Amino acid sequence: MNPRWIGTALVILVLSGACVQLGRWQFHRLDERKDRNDVTRTNLAAAPAPLTEIVGPDHVVGRQHDWRTAVVSGRYDAAKQVVVRYRNVRDRPGFEIVTPLVLPDGTALLVNRGFLARQGSELAPATIPPVPAGEVTVTGRLRRSEQGGSTSGGTPVDGTARLISGPGYAAALGLKLYDGYLAVEQQQPAADPAFATLPGPEVDDGPHFFYGLQWFFFALLAIGGLVYFSRQDVQRDDAPADATPNGSPDRTPDSEPVPAGTTADREQDNGVPPAP
Question: Shortest CA distance to 67 belongs to which of 178, 144, 146, 166?
């Protein structure tokens, strides 16, 4: 019990406690993911329904609506189309084209029309397939507005953005938008074949379980190391000061016992005459 070891023990205990909390957080995220997967599976299995029957009058696509198939009709507003950059679909970088669909009641819904792979190092698609003229009927999956923390990527600038966000687009485009968007699966008239289909959801538990186990292992490893090295110090302190590592008495050449008598005495006792 000295200041050095007390300080070390406190630091290791704090770090171990932090590891335990991180492990619990990962298991909490696992529970959230399982709940979200249950909602996703239910929504994927649900029959298509009109948008107004799924989303309430608040016009907010919530977690309970995520990946639900909705059917909506209206007219595309091509003048307010947005190119979403830095997208990656099936390990291919590219762009997604988002066009507002103006509904009969005057509100509008952002529609992700599809993915265009990047050609070379271009910063924007060379050509974008035009929107169909007149009224269209779109069947697709509802998605919540994307969140980017403190980034402003959800607000279009010069017709481009990094995120798809109803509230972020509404002010920039001057439209009364739903908070959320629709990813196209089918469209009448048919969508341009240049668009690649968008991937579906990942319905699995993710890495959270193993991450949680790793954090708990780090906590046990830290405490185990503290106990091991503490015992090593205690054993060294308890060892006798005059003992060698193998426990035998520590002797130096000066402390070796000398037989009684001198060399001359021993020779005389054996019948050998002393040297002159």
Answer: 144
Q: Give, in order, the Cα–Cα distances in Å from 127 to each of 52, 70, 95, 156.
A: 34, 29, 11, 19
Q: What is the pTM of this model?
A: 0.70
* C-beta separation of 94 from 116 below 8 A: yes
Output the six-digit token pair for 179.
Answer: 């908070």
Strands 82-89 and 92-102, sheet pairing: antiparallel
Phi, psi torsion values for 162, nearest 5 degrees: -110, -20
What pLDDT band is residue 231 in, cutting at 50, 70 and 90? confident
User: Using an 8 Å Cβ cutoff, are 113 and 190 in contact?
Assistant: no
DSSP state letter for 84: E
Pairing of strands 92-102, 108-117: antiparallel
Residue 160 C-beta-side C-alpha neighbours within 13 Å = 10
Give the DSSP letter of residue 196.
B
3-state secondary structure at position 101:
strand
Q: What residue spans define the domains of the chain?
A: 1-48+203-235, 68-188
List, for residues 243-261, the tens digit of each pLDDT value: 555 555 555 455 555 455 5
What is the C-alpha separation between 157 and 151, in angstroms, rounded?
A: 13
